[in-house]
Design brief:
- The chain is mainly α.
- The chain is built from eight helices and no strands.
- It is elongated, with a radius of gyration of 24 Å.
- It starts with 12 loop residues before the first helix and ends in a 10-residue tail after the last helix.
Amino acid sequence: MARLAADPVIVRSKQRKELEQLVRTHSTPQQLAMRARVILHALDGVGVRESGRELDVWPKTVRYWRKRWRHAAKGQSIPERLADAPRSGAPATFTPQQICAVVAMTCEKPSESERPISQWSQREIADEAMRRGLVSCISQRSVGRFLKKKPTSNRIAS
């Protein structure tokens, strides 16, 4: 049975250096490093199945990321090429500005808002945010999620 040759992956030398840097850097997220390895394997002539075995991923995954690399727009940075595709789902209910305003409000003392309490509760925060017009409607569970979220930082500079 004849073996099918994988479609070639074209990478400029500067891009190759960036891919190698991603793989070597300890702070690179593991999924991004794996995707960079897939592209580097393609450049080194490693087959799809062998690459999958070495990286402990399905051959389908190797084909997928090679194809994504080939079909990426010319001006895209390497992290953009290797980033997850947008997911489907409901749009966000609250804007980042609304979330920041609600969280900032919790830094104020409740007495400044003429609330007869000494500490904010999630229910009180939700009520005050709606009273001030920061949001039209919000649940105490949503407030809890806002307060629980940790700030994220971009680990990879474009």
